[in-house]
Design brief:
heterodimer; A: 170 residues; mainly beta; Jelly Rolls; 5-stranded antiparallel sheet; 4-stranded antiparallel sheet; 1 helix; 44% strand; elongated; B: 158 residues; 2 helices
Protein backbone atom coordinates (compact mmCIF):
# COMPACT_ATOMS: atom_id res chain seq x y z
CA UNK A 1 0.00 0.00 0.00
CA UNK A 2 1.53 3.31 -0.97
CA UNK A 3 2.04 5.98 1.63
CA UNK A 4 -0.37 8.30 -0.12
CA UNK A 5 -3.51 6.30 -0.58
CA UNK A 6 -5.57 8.49 -2.82
CA UNK A 7 -7.56 5.36 -3.74
CA UNK A 8 -5.82 5.30 -7.09
CA UNK A 9 -7.00 1.82 -8.04
CA UNK A 10 -10.57 2.93 -7.48
CA UNK A 11 -9.98 6.03 -9.60
CA UNK A 12 -8.72 3.92 -12.50
CA UNK A 13 -11.81 1.72 -12.29
CA UNK A 14 -14.00 4.82 -12.16
CA UNK A 15 -12.43 6.20 -15.35
CA UNK A 16 -12.78 2.85 -17.10
CA UNK A 17 -16.48 2.92 -16.23
CA UNK A 18 -16.80 6.37 -17.82
CA UNK A 19 -15.67 4.92 -21.15
CA UNK A 20 -18.01 2.00 -20.90
CA UNK A 21 -20.94 4.29 -20.04
CA UNK A 22 -20.25 6.12 -23.30
CA UNK A 23 -20.21 2.75 -25.05
CA UNK A 24 -16.56 3.08 -25.97
CA UNK A 25 -14.83 -0.28 -26.05
CA UNK A 26 -11.57 -0.41 -24.11
CA UNK A 27 -8.90 -2.46 -25.84
CA UNK A 28 -6.25 -2.24 -23.14
CA UNK A 29 -5.15 -0.34 -20.07
CA UNK A 30 -1.62 -0.50 -18.79
CA UNK A 31 0.79 1.61 -16.81
CA UNK A 32 2.77 4.06 -18.83
CA UNK A 33 5.23 6.87 -18.27
CA UNK A 34 5.48 10.09 -20.19
CA UNK A 35 9.00 11.40 -19.79
CA UNK A 36 9.85 15.08 -19.68
CA UNK A 37 13.55 15.41 -20.40
CA UNK A 38 14.47 18.61 -18.65
CA UNK A 39 18.20 18.31 -19.24
CA UNK A 40 20.31 21.01 -17.66
CA UNK A 41 18.74 23.98 -16.00
CA UNK A 42 21.22 26.76 -15.55
CA UNK A 43 21.02 28.42 -12.19
CA UNK A 44 19.41 31.82 -12.47
CA UNK A 45 18.60 31.46 -16.16
CA UNK A 46 15.28 32.44 -17.66
CA UNK A 47 12.33 30.13 -18.23
CA UNK A 48 12.98 26.77 -19.89
CA UNK A 49 9.92 25.24 -21.55
CA UNK A 50 9.18 21.59 -22.37
CA UNK A 51 6.11 20.22 -24.11
CA UNK A 52 4.88 16.66 -23.77
CA UNK A 53 2.43 15.16 -26.24
CA UNK A 54 0.20 12.22 -25.42
CA UNK A 55 0.72 9.42 -27.99
CA UNK A 56 -1.92 9.43 -30.74
CA UNK A 57 -3.09 5.89 -30.13
CA UNK A 58 -4.44 6.25 -26.62
CA UNK A 59 -5.63 8.52 -23.83
CA UNK A 60 -3.49 8.97 -20.76
CA UNK A 61 -4.70 9.08 -17.18
CA UNK A 62 -2.11 11.21 -15.41
CA UNK A 63 -1.72 9.99 -11.85
CA UNK A 64 1.38 11.69 -10.51
CA UNK A 65 4.98 12.76 -10.86
CA UNK A 66 8.52 11.59 -10.23
CA UNK A 67 11.75 13.52 -10.49
CA UNK A 68 15.24 12.20 -11.13
CA UNK A 69 17.83 12.74 -9.91
CA UNK A 70 16.16 13.17 -6.58
CA UNK A 71 17.74 15.70 -4.21
CA UNK A 72 18.52 12.96 -1.71
CA UNK A 73 20.42 10.96 -4.31
CA UNK A 74 24.13 11.47 -4.36
CA UNK A 75 25.00 12.31 -7.94
CA UNK A 76 27.55 14.74 -9.22
CA UNK A 77 29.08 17.85 -7.78
CA UNK A 78 26.67 19.90 -9.83
CA UNK A 79 23.80 17.57 -9.10
CA UNK A 80 20.62 18.47 -7.38
CA UNK A 81 22.16 20.29 -4.43
CA UNK A 82 19.87 23.23 -4.04
CA UNK A 83 16.94 21.84 -5.94
CA UNK A 84 15.13 25.16 -5.90
CA UNK A 85 13.31 24.59 -9.15
CA UNK A 86 9.94 26.06 -9.89
CA UNK A 87 7.55 24.94 -12.57
CA UNK A 88 4.36 25.95 -14.26
CA UNK A 89 2.11 23.31 -15.77
CA UNK A 90 -0.44 24.12 -18.41
CA UNK A 91 -2.75 21.80 -20.29
CA UNK A 92 -2.61 23.29 -23.75
CA UNK A 93 -5.96 22.00 -24.95
CA UNK A 94 -7.84 23.22 -21.90
CA UNK A 95 -5.97 26.47 -21.32
CA UNK A 96 -5.82 25.48 -17.71
CA UNK A 97 -2.93 25.59 -15.31
CA UNK A 98 -2.50 23.33 -12.34
CA UNK A 99 -1.12 26.09 -10.17
CA UNK A 100 -2.64 29.44 -9.46
CA UNK A 101 -3.28 31.10 -12.78
CA UNK A 102 -3.25 34.76 -13.63
CA UNK A 103 -5.87 36.42 -11.53
CA UNK A 104 -7.90 38.59 -13.85
CA UNK A 105 -9.10 40.84 -11.06
CA UNK A 106 -5.68 41.75 -9.71
CA UNK A 107 -3.55 40.78 -12.70
CA UNK A 108 -1.12 39.14 -10.31
CA UNK A 109 1.65 37.25 -12.06
CA UNK A 110 1.06 33.61 -12.90
CA UNK A 111 2.08 31.33 -10.06
CA UNK A 112 4.85 28.81 -9.90
CA UNK A 113 4.82 25.49 -8.10
CA UNK A 114 8.02 24.36 -6.37
CA UNK A 115 8.98 21.21 -8.20
CA UNK A 116 9.80 19.32 -5.02
CA UNK A 117 6.32 20.00 -3.64
CA UNK A 118 4.60 17.93 -6.33
CA UNK A 119 7.22 15.34 -7.34
CA UNK A 120 8.30 12.18 -5.57
CA UNK A 121 10.57 9.36 -6.67
CA UNK A 122 10.14 5.75 -7.71
CA UNK A 123 9.70 4.33 -4.23
CA UNK A 124 7.33 7.10 -3.22
CA UNK A 125 5.78 8.92 -6.16
CA UNK A 126 3.71 12.02 -5.75
CA UNK A 127 0.09 11.38 -6.72
CA UNK A 128 -2.49 13.98 -7.62
CA UNK A 129 -5.49 13.88 -5.31
CA UNK A 130 -7.67 13.42 -8.38
CA UNK A 131 -6.15 12.10 -11.63
CA UNK A 132 -6.25 14.05 -14.89
CA UNK A 133 -7.47 12.49 -18.11
CA UNK A 134 -5.44 13.66 -21.10
CA UNK A 135 -6.77 12.83 -24.52
CA UNK A 136 -4.74 11.34 -27.37
CA UNK A 137 -2.48 14.01 -28.93
CA UNK A 138 -3.16 16.32 -25.97
CA UNK A 139 -0.26 18.47 -24.93
CA UNK A 140 1.07 19.52 -21.57
CA UNK A 141 3.48 22.41 -21.35
CA UNK A 142 5.97 22.71 -18.53
CA UNK A 143 7.97 25.84 -17.80
CA UNK A 144 10.95 25.48 -15.50
CA UNK A 145 12.82 28.10 -13.58
CA UNK A 146 15.87 27.12 -11.53
CA UNK A 147 16.99 29.20 -8.58
CA UNK A 148 19.31 26.89 -6.69
CA UNK A 149 22.90 26.99 -5.52
CA UNK A 150 24.18 25.29 -8.69
CA UNK A 151 22.99 24.09 -12.08
CA UNK A 152 20.55 21.21 -12.21
CA UNK A 153 21.91 18.55 -14.57
CA UNK A 154 20.37 15.56 -16.34
CA UNK A 155 17.00 16.12 -14.80
CA UNK A 156 13.96 14.16 -15.92
CA UNK A 157 10.40 14.53 -14.79
CA UNK A 158 8.23 11.48 -15.21
CA UNK A 159 4.49 11.73 -15.56
CA UNK A 160 3.28 8.38 -14.35
CA UNK A 161 -0.09 7.10 -15.32
CA UNK A 162 -2.24 4.68 -17.23
CA UNK A 163 -2.46 4.41 -20.98
CA UNK A 164 -6.02 3.81 -22.08
CA UNK A 165 -6.26 2.27 -25.51
CA UNK A 166 -9.78 2.35 -26.88
CA UNK A 167 -11.58 2.02 -30.17
CA UNK A 168 -12.17 5.78 -30.59
CA UNK A 169 -8.54 6.80 -30.05
CA UNK A 170 -7.02 5.40 -33.21
CA UNK B 1 -4.25 -4.51 4.91
CA UNK B 2 -4.87 -0.87 5.60
CA UNK B 3 -1.99 1.51 5.76
CA UNK B 4 -1.76 3.59 8.91
CA UNK B 5 -2.11 6.68 6.74
CA UNK B 6 -5.12 5.46 4.81
CA UNK B 7 -7.19 8.60 5.00
CA UNK B 8 -9.16 7.45 1.92
CA UNK B 9 -9.24 10.95 0.56
CA UNK B 10 -10.39 9.69 -2.80
CA UNK B 11 -13.46 8.16 -1.20
CA UNK B 12 -14.13 11.40 0.66
CA UNK B 13 -13.81 13.41 -2.55
CA UNK B 14 -16.09 10.98 -4.35
CA UNK B 15 -18.63 11.23 -1.51
CA UNK B 16 -18.62 15.03 -1.71
CA UNK B 17 -19.03 14.84 -5.48
CA UNK B 18 -22.04 12.56 -5.09
CA UNK B 19 -23.60 14.96 -2.54
CA UNK B 20 -23.27 17.88 -4.94
CA UNK B 21 -24.65 15.81 -7.81
CA UNK B 22 -27.67 14.92 -5.71
CA UNK B 23 -28.17 18.68 -5.14
CA UNK B 24 -28.54 19.11 -8.89
CA UNK B 25 -25.03 20.05 -9.98
CA UNK B 26 -22.76 18.74 -12.66
CA UNK B 27 -19.43 18.49 -10.86
CA UNK B 28 -15.92 18.35 -12.21
CA UNK B 29 -12.75 18.23 -10.12
CA UNK B 30 -9.56 19.86 -11.25
CA UNK B 31 -6.30 19.21 -9.35
CA UNK B 32 -4.86 22.50 -8.25
CA UNK B 33 -2.10 23.93 -6.10
CA UNK B 34 -2.32 27.19 -4.17
CA UNK B 35 0.91 28.77 -3.04
CA UNK B 36 2.01 30.79 -0.03
CA UNK B 37 5.49 32.13 -0.63
CA UNK B 38 7.80 33.79 1.87
CA UNK B 39 10.63 35.16 -0.24
CA UNK B 40 12.48 35.37 1.97
CA UNK B 41 11.24 34.78 5.47
CA UNK B 42 13.74 36.91 7.35
CA UNK B 43 15.34 35.39 10.42
CA UNK B 44 13.44 35.79 13.69
CA UNK B 45 10.44 37.49 12.14
CA UNK B 46 6.75 36.70 11.98
CA UNK B 47 5.19 37.18 8.54
CA UNK B 48 1.53 36.77 7.56
CA UNK B 49 0.47 35.82 4.03
CA UNK B 50 -3.07 35.54 2.77
CA UNK B 51 -4.01 32.91 0.21
CA UNK B 52 -7.14 33.97 -1.65
CA UNK B 53 -9.14 31.23 -3.29
CA UNK B 54 -9.96 32.06 -6.91
CA UNK B 55 -13.45 33.23 -7.68
CA UNK B 56 -14.13 30.58 -10.31
CA UNK B 57 -14.46 27.60 -7.97
CA UNK B 58 -14.35 26.43 -4.37
CA UNK B 59 -11.26 24.47 -3.40
CA UNK B 60 -11.03 21.22 -1.47
CA UNK B 61 -7.68 21.24 0.29
CA UNK B 62 -6.29 17.69 0.59
CA UNK B 63 -2.59 17.90 1.37
CA UNK B 64 0.25 20.31 2.09
CA UNK B 65 3.91 20.38 1.10
CA UNK B 66 6.82 22.76 1.57
CA UNK B 67 10.23 23.50 0.21
CA UNK B 68 12.78 25.68 1.93
CA UNK B 69 16.17 27.01 0.94
CA UNK B 70 18.55 29.50 2.43
CA UNK B 71 18.86 32.63 0.35
CA UNK B 72 22.21 31.18 -0.82
CA UNK B 73 20.34 28.16 -2.20
CA UNK B 74 21.10 25.46 0.39
CA UNK B 75 18.19 23.09 0.94
CA UNK B 76 16.60 23.04 4.40
CA UNK B 77 14.77 19.84 5.23
CA UNK B 78 13.47 20.90 8.63
CA UNK B 79 13.85 24.64 9.14
CA UNK B 80 12.89 25.88 12.55
CA UNK B 81 9.72 27.67 11.53
CA UNK B 82 6.38 27.72 13.26
CA UNK B 83 3.12 27.99 11.38
CA UNK B 84 -0.39 29.10 12.15
CA UNK B 85 -3.28 28.53 9.69
CA UNK B 86 -6.68 30.13 9.81
CA UNK B 87 -9.43 29.95 7.19
CA UNK B 88 -11.01 33.40 7.53
CA UNK B 89 -14.38 32.35 6.18
CA UNK B 90 -15.21 30.00 9.00
CA UNK B 91 -13.49 32.25 11.57
CA UNK B 92 -12.02 29.28 13.35
CA UNK B 93 -8.46 28.47 14.22
CA UNK B 94 -7.09 25.15 13.00
CA UNK B 95 -4.68 24.97 15.90
CA UNK B 96 -4.55 26.25 19.47
CA UNK B 97 -1.01 27.55 19.06
CA UNK B 98 1.64 27.78 16.38
CA UNK B 99 2.88 24.35 15.27
CA UNK B 100 6.16 23.38 13.71
CA UNK B 101 6.33 23.56 9.92
CA UNK B 102 7.15 19.87 9.49
CA UNK B 103 4.17 18.88 11.64
CA UNK B 104 1.70 20.16 9.07
CA UNK B 105 3.65 20.27 5.80
CA UNK B 106 5.38 17.37 4.04
CA UNK B 107 7.28 16.93 0.79
CA UNK B 108 6.34 15.83 -2.72
CA UNK B 109 7.28 12.30 -1.70
CA UNK B 110 5.42 12.40 1.55
CA UNK B 111 2.86 15.16 1.61
CA UNK B 112 1.10 15.94 4.84
CA UNK B 113 -2.36 14.61 4.08
CA UNK B 114 -5.33 16.09 5.87
CA UNK B 115 -7.22 13.24 7.52
CA UNK B 116 -10.33 15.08 6.41
CA UNK B 117 -10.15 17.31 3.31
CA UNK B 118 -11.24 20.89 3.98
CA UNK B 119 -13.49 22.79 1.63
CA UNK B 120 -12.67 26.48 1.20
CA UNK B 121 -15.29 28.60 -0.58
CA UNK B 122 -14.47 30.62 -3.70
CA UNK B 123 -12.99 34.05 -2.90
CA UNK B 124 -12.36 33.04 0.70
CA UNK B 125 -9.06 33.68 2.42
CA UNK B 126 -6.73 31.27 4.16
CA UNK B 127 -4.40 33.17 6.48
CA UNK B 128 -0.94 31.70 6.88
CA UNK B 129 1.50 32.99 9.46
CA UNK B 130 5.13 31.91 9.47
CA UNK B 131 7.26 32.54 12.54
CA UNK B 132 10.98 32.08 12.00
CA UNK B 133 12.79 30.75 15.05
CA UNK B 134 16.16 30.89 13.35
CA UNK B 135 18.56 33.69 12.48
CA UNK B 136 18.92 32.50 8.88
CA UNK B 137 16.84 34.06 6.10
CA UNK B 138 14.91 31.33 4.30
CA UNK B 139 13.01 31.20 1.03
CA UNK B 140 9.94 29.23 2.07
CA UNK B 141 7.32 28.03 -0.39
CA UNK B 142 4.20 26.32 0.87
CA UNK B 143 1.84 24.42 -1.43
CA UNK B 144 -1.78 23.67 -0.65
CA UNK B 145 -2.73 20.74 -2.88
CA UNK B 146 -6.27 19.78 -3.66
CA UNK B 147 -8.98 20.08 -6.25
CA UNK B 148 -11.00 22.96 -7.61
CA UNK B 149 -14.69 22.12 -7.68
CA UNK B 150 -16.36 23.36 -10.83
CA UNK B 151 -20.11 23.34 -10.51
CA UNK B 152 -22.76 23.74 -13.14
CA UNK B 153 -26.39 23.85 -12.11
CA UNK B 154 -28.37 21.39 -14.13
CA UNK B 155 -31.73 22.42 -15.54
CA UNK B 156 -34.56 20.82 -13.67
CA UNK B 157 -37.38 19.11 -15.53
CA UNK B 158 -40.77 20.71 -14.94
Amino acid sequence: MPYQDWGTAGQIKRVARLYLEQRIRLDAMHWHHLEVVIGTLTNGASVSPAVVTVPPDADFLWLGNLITPHPEQSVTATGPAGFATLMRIELQDEYKQLGRHRDRSTDAPAGWIPLMNVCGRGRMPFLWPWPILLHARGQVRFDFLHRGSSDLVAARLTMLGIKIIHEAAA
Amino acid sequence: MLDYFDFSQSRQLAKRKAELQRSGYKVSYWPFVYAADFLPLLGNTVVPVNVTIDGDAPFIWCASTFSAFTTAGAAQTAPNILIRLRPETIQRELMNAQVHLISVFGTGERPHMLYMPMELPAKSVLSVEADSETATDINLRLSFIGVKVYLKKLARAV
